[in-house]
Design goal:
heterodimer; A: 73 residues; alpha+beta; two-stranded antiparallel ribbon; 4 strands; B: Rossmann fold; Pyruvate-ferredoxin Oxidoreductase, domain 3; elongated
Chain lengths: 73, 470
């Protein structure tokens, strides 16, 4: 396991789904919970993340996504 | 290890809605899937990586990105619609070390501000322009923009844009590429991740050019407006690819190694040179280390032809010659003679913030109408000098100091009626003491263009001195 992951700030996501479509490893999906802004925030649930950062760059929100590279990667 | 996180080019919290607390103080105001957020992020990341945010002046336009100043932890100016390149010109020419970013949408840049961007580009002005092109007026609800595609439906072209009626889409990058000035022009697209990364490169290139003083850089970014286009964020990215990119070619138009033509730092005139030019050795002596207590805001008003403007210039030059800061702002109608005119002069120990004078500390009234219209605007404790040759009435107020002097008659006596302005100006200097009358005497020969008039003007200064002494 690489330990790579994307932290999604559930409060800040506007559910545009651009990251979901962009991720080459299909690590992100739309969640079911509705956040304070009224959106179904994206969820990260995968072991395939390569921490490539694509989701981060396409995401229009400054602080919604944080990409973390696992220590043993 | 955190590899990508919110760039430090942004504020931690966004003040716009921070009073409400909650997530709105950390999100932008942009709609879901808007391209602005992505471009903001690329810029903010570069500001952090290059370590330049403390010397960056970010110009917000009018449009959806009007609130950029809530997000970027830089110097910020929110500009009038379309005028950001003109504001940027002022910033870069007065702040030599600034990194200037003009961030504009297509309505702002290609519609309302077409003239500003063309001329700034043509001058190779040292700034980075990020032109976010989404082919629509987004903020106002999706009207036709200069870059709207042919056939594209907008609220003002419900049946689609028609070349015969609205003209075709304006290609700004191509247009600016026809000019000699720009150093760097590239059009990128946010249609997919590869496009975003190319945009990132272009943004960083433009900002590198800024840091290296290579002149005018222009990055046009094809950007989605899902709400305005009535598409989902995903569909809108496909729409860019299928429609916009076929009309607006994505490519690097120009990358001039040597930078903009003629770019380089403009020779700045230092305070010392300026003082030397208007030169006065009396300055420091006359002031005897005395500082101005407050900013002096002087209004000189009269008929056109009475020398109101030149008196203002002379006053400002005298102040500068004495090492003070000064501005001069003329106000007049279309006629060169006979209309009413006034000049605003601000004199200060500090750099002057605004040259506009609404509440003068001193009014120099050369004629009746000027006194009538401006008497009430003078601050309590202020000074009014009245040209009693032409103004028969007394000043109505009793909370200002008033000097009555027949300046026109005095000038006529010296055989030079047009010199009434110099008499008036001299009286002001004699009343205030700063700047000094001695400085005026050294500035006159340098400031007056017709050299044969120097002598008579100096004579008028002397006449004013005699009047003041009596």
């Amino acid at each position: 396991m690489s330990g790579n992951r994307v932290e999604v700030n559930q409060d800040l996501c506007k559910a545009c789904r651009v990251c979901v479509e962009t991720c080459p490893q299909h690590c992100l999906e739309l969640g079911s919970a509705i956040n304070a802004l009224g959106y179904q925030a994206v969820r990260f649930d995968s072991v395939d993340c390569t921490a490539c950062g694509m989701c981060f760059y396409v995401c229009p929100e400054p602080g919604a996504l944080t990409v973390i590279k696992g220590e043993d990667a | 290890m955190v590899k990508h996180a919110k760039p430090k080019g942004f504020y931690d919290t966004f003040e716009r809605k921070s009073s409400q607390g909650g997530p709105e103080s950390e999100t932008t105001h942009y709609c879901p899937g808007c391209g602005h957020g992505t471009v903001h992020k690329l810029i903010a990341e570069a500001l952090e990586d290059f370590g330049i945010k403390d010397r960056t002046v970010f110009l917000s336009p009018v449009g959806c990105s009007v609130f950029a100043y809530y997000y970027f932890d830089t110097g910020n100016i929110q500009c009038s619609h379309g005028r950001a390149p003109a504001v940027g010109t002022g910033v870069i020419r007065s702040l030599d070390d600034a990194v200037v970013i003009s961030y504009q949408g297509d309505g702002d840049l290609a519609g309302i501000g077409t003239a500003e961007i063309v001329h700034a580009a043509n001058r190779g002005e040292n700034m980075a322009v990020f032109f976010v092109n989404n082919a629509i007026y987004g903020m106002t609800g999706g009207q036709l923009a200069p870059t709207t595609l042919l056939g594209q439906e907008t609220t003002t072209t419900p049946l689609g844009r028609l070349a015969d009626r609205e003209g075709g889409p304006i290609h700004m990058s191509e247009m600016l590429d026809a000019l000699d000035g720009p150093a760097f022009i590239e059009r990128t697209s946010l249609s997919n991740a590869a496009g975003v990364m190319k945009t990132r490169k272009a943004v960083r290139k433009a900002l590198t050019n800024q840091v290296e003083r290579r002149g005018f850089s222009f990055v046009e970014i094809l950007s989605p407006c899902p709400v305005g286009w009535k598409l989902t964020p995903i569909q809108s990215r496909i729409w860019i690819k299928d429609n916009m990119e076929t009309i607006f070619q994505v490519k690097r138009f120009r990358d001039r190694e040597e930078g903009s033509r003629g770019t380089g730092r403009m020779p700045l005139m230092g305070d010392e040179e300026l003082k030397e030019l208007l030169g006065s050795d009396h300055g420091e002596e006359a002031r005897k280390g005395e500082n101005l207590e407050t900013e002096c805001r002087v209004k000189i008003a009269g008929f056109g032809g009475q020398g109101v403007m030149s008196a203002g210039v002379l006053l400002a030059n005298t102040a500068i010659g004495e090492g003070l800061e000064a501005t001069w702002l003329p106000s007049y109608g279309p006629e060169m003679r006979g209309g009413t005119a006034n000049a605003s002069v601000v004199i200060s120990d500090e750099p002057v913030g605004s040259p506009v004078v609404n509440r003068p500390t001193t009014l120099l009234a050369m004629n009746g109408p000027s006194l009538d219209s401006l008497e009430d605007s003078v601050i309590t404790g202020g000074l009014i000098v009245v040209n009693s040759s032409l103004i028969n009435r007394k000043v109505r107020r009793d909370d200002v100091k008033v000097v009555y002097a027949p300046v026109s008659d005095m000038a006529a006596e010296a055989g030079f009626l047009k010199g009434a302005n110099v008499v008036m100006l001299s009286l002001y200097l004699l009343e205030k003491g700063v700047p000094g009358i001695q400085t005026l005497k050294t500035v006159i020969p340098k400031s007056i263009k017709k050299k044969e008039l120097v002598e008579v003007n100096l004579k008028l200064v002397k006449a004013a001195e005699e009047f003041h002494a009596s």
